[in-house]
Amino acid sequence: MLRERLDELLAQTSLVVTDHQREQLVKLVQALDKWNKAYNLTSVRDPLEMVAKHIVDSLVVSPYLPQGSLIDVGTGPGLPGLPLAIINPDKPFVLLDSLGKRIRFIRQTCHELGIKNVTAVQSRVEEHQPEQPYAAVLSRAFASIQDMLDWCGHLTDANGAFLAMKGQYPEEELNALPKNVQVRAVYPLEVPGLDGQRHLIALGYADTV
Ligand SMILES: C[S@@+](CC[C@H](N)C(=O)[O-])C[C@H]1O[C@@H](n2cnc3c(N)ncnc32)[C@H](O)[C@@H]1O
């Protein structure tokens, strides 16, 4: 059932996802379902619903990821980072959350699914000191855009991007940003299986580009 639902939804996108990656994505849903009972990882309880709400909703961001390393801040149980890492196995991902049980879930799942391009970090984002600046800082359901910029500014450099996944177009949030913040792009996202609007907002600092 899970595999059929995943195939049905992916067929409505232009994403290229191999058979092996589809198997890993299904196993990720099964792991979320299993661990959710003890670890309360997500309020979505029905694994079939997770396919659209968590897996495909994460994957649709893939075409907009830049070259280089990415950090998913406030990743929770690895969303959107784990699905994206599965379909981009050559791209390095850091998945960061302050809650230990979520990071334990990510590490165990990477081990069981053979995911090699993920480093899971337990830390408050404000305290995380990267060895190298990340090419992009990504988040879903993490914070307001202003808070994301305030808390994550040290994670990237002049060329870096902030990629915020949002539902409705966040007009008020964007209008309230200071002048040195540049909205570089707004991508409306189509998520098969989900009603309602989804947007990816790409931001940077205007005086550093
Ligand atoms: C609403 S959840 C979203 C999880 C996931 N991104 C998703 O879309 O399902 C927000 C997550 O951000 C984490 N978080 C909140 N503030 C944080 C901080 N300052 N540093 C690191 N993680 C934080 C929480 O522990 C939580 O797992």
Outline the fold blueprint.
Layout: H1 2-10, H2 19-39, H3 47-59, E1 70-73, H4 81-87, E2 93-97, H5 100-113, E3 118-122, E4 134-140, H6 145-152, E5 156-166, H7 171-175, E6 181-189, E7 198-205
Helix pairs in contact: 1-2, 1-3, 2-3, 2-4, 2-5, 3-4
S-adenosylmethionine is lined by residues 74-76, 79, 96-99, 102, 124-126, 140-142, 151.
GO molecular function: rRNA (guanine-N7-)-methyltransferase activity
GO cellular component, one term: cytosol
Family: Belongs to the methyltransferase superfamily. RNA methyltransferase RsmG family.
Radius of gyration: 16 Å
Query: Would you tell me the overall average pLDDT?
Result: 96
Strand content: 15-25%
How many runs of DSSP E, i.e. beta strands?
7
Q: What structural category do the secondary elements indicate? A: alpha/beta
Order of helices and strands: HHHEHEHEEHEHEE
Shape: globular
What binds here, in terms of ligands, is: S-adenosylmethionine
What is the spatial order of strands in the main beta sheet?
3-2-1-4-5-7-6
Quaternary organisation of the protein chains: single chain
Distinct helical segment count: 7
Q: What's the structural domain tally? A: 1
Low-pLDDT segments, ≥5 res:
none
Helix content: 25-40%
Q: Could you give a short account of the major beta sheet?
A: 7 strands, mixed
At the first level of CATH, the class is Alpha Beta
Distance N to C terminus: 47 Å
At the fold tier of CATH, the topology name is Rossmann fold
